[in-house]
Design goal:
The chain is mostly helical. The chain has a single domain, classed as Rossmann fold, CATH 3.40.50.10490. The chain is built from 5 helices and 2 strands. The chain has a two-stranded parallel ribbon. The protein is globular and about 50 Å long.
Length: 129
């Protein structure tokens, strides 16, 4: 689901976005937050949450929120909605799709064209001689 958010933000909002999952994020990516450079100060973090999270993951998320709150542009959480696992997963997917669309509009960006992808396809086509 986080990968879908990343792709939709890239394609629709024309924004750089990355994703990771817990606990893996705490093994490697956590070290990147020690940089505290200008990139991190302009980084907004979204945690996708679910009521079915195990306690250990909740603790990891809380720790990361405390770690990065003072060195990032901001943090937010998006909680899944619904009773079944499918409902909750689909709710996060459609919220991400809407966020990417409305963020594009807010930024004054048309979410529909994928110019860089089309240019890449043309470039690759020319190289197929």
């Amino acid at each position: 689901i986080a990968y879908r958010w990343k792709c939709q933000l890239n394609e629709n909002s024309k924004l750089f976005a990355i994703w990771n999952s817990f606990p893996e994020l705490n093994h490697n990516e956590i070290m990147g937050w020690e940089g505290r450079d200008d990139f991190l100060k302009n980084t907004f973090v979204i945690f996708l949450r679910d009521k079915g999270e195990i306690d250990r993951i909740r603790l990891r998320i809380q720790y990361m929120k405390e770690l990065i709150s003072s060195i990032s542009a901001g943090i937010d959480e998006v909680w899944s909605r619904g009773e079944s696992l499918l409902e909750r997963f689909l709710s996060l997917i459609y919220i991400g799709d809407f966020v990417s669309f409305y963020l594009a509009i807010k930024r004054g960006v048309d979410p529909t064209p994928v110019n860089s992808i089309e240019k890449l396809k043309e470039y690759l086509k020319k190289g197929e001689h």
